[in-house]
Design goal:
The structure holds 2 protein chains of 2 kinds.
Chain A (H helix, E strand, L loop, with lengths): L7 E4 L5 E6 L9 E5 L6 E4 L13 E6 L2 E6 L8 E8 L6 E3 L3 E5 L1
Parallel strand pairs in A: 1-9
Antiparallel strand pairs in A: 2-6, 3-4, 3-7, 5-6, 7-8, 7-9
Chain B lengths: L2 E5 L3 E2 L5 E8 L8 E6 L5 E7 L6 E3 L7 E6 L4 E6 L8 E10 L4 E9 L3 E5 L2
Parallel strand pairs in B: 2-11
Antiparallel strand pairs in B: 1-3, 3-8, 4-5, 4-9, 5-6, 7-8, 9-10, 9-11
Classes of the chains: A mainly beta, B mainly beta.
Chain lengths: 107, 124
C-alpha cells in the first residue's frame, strides 16, 4: 500500500492551505502528519482523528474522508514553510507507510 | 525532557556492516515501542523497522529484511540497528523514533519523538 501526496504546494501568507494524502490504508487507519524543516528531524503535528501534540499551534488541523487524509493550515505563517509527510499503519506486510512528502512554500 | 540520540553512522563500503545505536532518556524506555526511520539524501521518509517494548515482536521493511536486525537493551535504555550487506541505496540519515503511547495503549505509525539522526554513507 502507498500514500500519495502532491510534491509541492504554495500558500500566501495568512491564507489557508490543505495538504492531502491519499491511500487505501487510510480507509482503515488515521494518518499522522509530520513537519520537517531543512537539516532537522521531523516533528509530529497531527495524529489520530485530529489531535495536536503539546506546543503545536492550533492553526494546524487534520481530517479524513474515505481514502484521503488532509492537513489544513489556517492562516499560514512564514515559519510553516517546510516539508510535510503523512504516514499510517499499513494492512500489508509493512508496518507503517509514509507518503512521499509535500514541500510547502509560504509566499 | 525526552531525548533520543543516535550514533554509529559512518562511511562504509558496499557489502560492509554497521551498528547504529540510539540512547534514550527522559522517559521509561522499557514501556515504549521503538522504530528506525531513514531518509535518503534529498528524498522522503522511509520506515525501516519496529520493535515492541519487550522486544518480543519485530517488523522490517521489505527493503532491509534479512540484512538488518533491530534490537534493544531496556537495562541500558538503548535501541540498536545492526546493518549487514550494505548497499548504496542504504545511504541515508537514520532516525530512531518513539511511538506515541497514552495511559492505555501505544499507537503504531504515530512517532511523537525523533532523534536528530545519524548519517550512513555506503560507497566505495
Amino acid at each position: 500500500s502507498e500514500l500519495t501526496q502532491d510534491p509541492t504546494m504554495s500558500v500566501a501568507l495568512g491564507q489557508t492551505v490543505r495538504i492531502t494524502c491519499q491511500g487505501d490504508s487510510l480507509r482503515t487507519y488515521y494518518a499522522s502528519w509530520y513537519q520537517q524543516k531543512p537539516g532537522q528531524a521531523p516533528v509530529l503535528v497531527i495524529y489520530g482523528k485530529n489531535n495536536r501534540p503539546s506546543g503545536i499551534p492550533d492553526r494546524f488541523s487534520g481530517s479524513k474522508s474515505g481514502n484521503t487524509a488532509s492537513l489544513t493550515i489556517t492562516g499560514a505563517q512564514a515559519e510553516d514553510e517546510a516539508d510535510y509527510y503523512c504516514d499510517s499503519r499499513d494492512r500489508s506486510a509493512k508496518y507503517v507507510v509514509f507518503g512521499g512528502g509535500t514541500r510547502l512554500t509560504v509566499l | 525532557e525526552v531525548q533520543l540520540v543516535e550514533s554509529g553512522g559512518h562511511l562504509v563500503q558496499p557489502g560492509g556492516s554497521l551498528r547504529l545505536s540510539c540512547a534514550a532518556s527522559g522517559f521509561t524506555f522499557s514501556s515504549y515501542e521503538m522504530n528506525w526511520v531513514r531518509q535518503a539524501p534529498g528524498k522522503g521518509l522511509e520506515w525501516v523497522s519496529y520493535i515492541r517494548s519487550s522486544g518480543g515482536t519485530i517488523y522490517y521493511a521489505d527493503s532491509v529484511k534479512g540484512r538488518f536486525t533491530i534490537s534493544r537493551d531496556n537495562a541500558k535504555n538503548s535501541l540498536y540497528l545492526q546493518m549487514n550487506s550494505l548497499r548504496a541505496e542504504d545511504t541515508a540519515v537514520y532516525y530512531c523514533a518513539r511511538e506515541y503511547c497514552n495511559s492505555t495503549s501505544c499507537y503504531g505509525g504515530i512517532f511523537d519523538y525523533w532523534g536528530q539522526g545519524t548519517l550512513v554513507t555506503v560507497s566505495s
